[in-house]
Design goal:
With 426 residues, the chain is of the alpha/beta class. Helix content is 32%, strand content 24%. Helix 4 crosses helix 10. The N terminus is likely disordered.
Length: 426
């Protein structure tokens, strides 16, 4: 998979390409819509195909809301090996592996474990930091041009560690990322963390310290997707909701059209941004891509009545694998990583766990109202690096834009730039 960074393409400027094309994007999550926006800005005619009745129906709908441009450590890291017994045997583990009679799960899992070493983790961290930097620039340029109302703010982020050993490992990761050109970060003790976020005062005795990144932001991904969809439609894009991809019509080395419930759809190029379903979508073409769903959960709490009890700074609790992000008068609480296959049902035990975590970390915050529970399937690759570009051995006009895992919101706009640049160079 060849991935080349975009150079010189600026969102907000309607540059006329050397050849305007009709491009169909499959998927209306944040990755698909960011790609559609970049294509439209480059002067292409765009159609978006989405099986759901509206945008952000999948992993984008209730995600963790954090824009993690500066702290992008991949899930595949050397410490996973010591955690394997816990992952396999503990039912309440926030990072859960439930083995199935599923060849795709076993193949993905073996490749994931193969990436759990220092060299692979360092390479993935560097690649993710580069893409995240491009994505920050692209997103900020889009936002400067469009001023979309999506609860965007920059409160900074604290990543909490419960043990001195964990904090030492975090310090090594901070040093690694600093050497790779990452944004300024600081390792702080528990008292300093509370000064940065007073709502953590009741939890200070249970943490050794934290990594503080002042430049990190948060945004409501669903609102962002809804506004992008409206913007695209207002500028002439054809958004087809409630229309699932049913298959491809292939002629020689190219895709001639897509089969949909609304009839055939013909375009010059096709971008597969269908998240965790992308692997099954390409299988009839004889392609195998290493994308597997990682199931996550979230709740959204009304914090209007007790604003000081909820954090203003974004918080990630590494021990619980839970993130907390303020969205105006709401607090998004998201977490869990379940490698369980195609099981999309919402487990009430996981929602109860998120509620307990919120009560324990922010004891003064009432959690007795509506929780707005959500679950979604994050499309992940074993290394944590998304797939952007042509699939090896695939049709020449089929492009992949998938595998962003838990970093879809963070990486969407940089990935979009890269794909547009690759398409222009093809």
């Amino acid at each position: 998979m060849a991935v080349q960074p975009a150079r010189g393409l600026q969102f907000g400027s309607m540059e006329t390409p050397s050849k305007s094309m009709h491009v169909c994007v499959v998927g209306a999550g944040i990755v698909g819509l960011a790609t559609a926006y970049a294509l439209q800005q480059a002067g292409h005619r765009v159609t978006v195909l989405e099986r759901a009745c509206g945008p952000a129906d999948g992993a984008s709908g209730g995600n963790g809301a954090q824009l993690s441009y500066s702290y992008v450590q991949p899930l595949a890291e050397p410490g996973i090996w010591k955690m394997l017994p816990h992952l396999l045997l503990q039912k309440d583990s926030p990072l859960a592996l439930r083995l199935r009679a599923d060849p795709a799960q076993w193949a993905w899992g073996l490749r994931f474990l193969g990436a759990c070493n220092a060299r692979a983790s360092r390479a993935a961290t560097q690649a993710l930091l580069e893409l995240a930097a491009e994505s920050r620039q692209a997103f900020e340029a889009m936002q400067a041009a469009e001023a979309l109302d999506c609860a965007l703010h920059t409160p900074g982020k604290l990543v909490l560690y419960g043990t001195a050993r964990g904090l030492e490992g975090a310090a090594r990761q901070v040093a690694l990322q600093a050497g790779l050109g990452g944004a300024p970060q600081q390792v702080v003790d528990a008292a300093q963390a509370v000064r940065l976020e007073p709502a953590l005062a009741g939890y200070a005795g249970r943490i050794a310290g934290a990594v503080h990144t002042p430049s990190e932001s948060a945004a409501d991904c669903r609102l962002l997707c809804e506004q992008l969809a409206r913007l695209l439609a207002a500028r002439g894009a054809d958004l087809r909701f409630g229309a699932a991809l049913q298959g491809f019509d292939r002629q020689g080395d190219a895709i001639a059209g897509l089969r949909t419930p609304q009839g055939p759809l013909h375009a010059d190029h096709y971008v597969l941004a269908s998240g965790w379903e992308s692997a099954s979508h390409v299988r009839p073409l004889g392609l195998r891509i290493p994308v597997y769903p990682l199931k996550g959960y979230s709740i959204t709490i009304d914090a209007a009545g007790t604003p000081r009890a909820a954090p203003c700074v974004s918080v990630t609790d590494t021990a619980r694998k839970v993130v907390f992000a303020r969205l105006g008068n709401r607090l998004r609480v998201a977490g869990m990583v379940e490698i369980t296959g195609r099981d999309t049902h919402l487990d009430p035990r996981r929602i109860a766990s998120l509620r307990r975590s919120t009560q324990e970390v922010f004891a003064q915050l009432p959690v007795d109202g509506a929780l707005h529970p959500w679950t979604g399937m994050r499309p992940a690759t074993p290394t944590g690096l998304p797939l952007t570009g042509r699939a090896r051995g695939g049709p020449r006009n089929l492009w992949l834009q998938t595998g962003h895992g838990a970093l879809g919101l963070t990486l969407a706009f940089g990935s979009a730039q890269r794909l547009v640049a690759q398409m222009a160079a093809a």
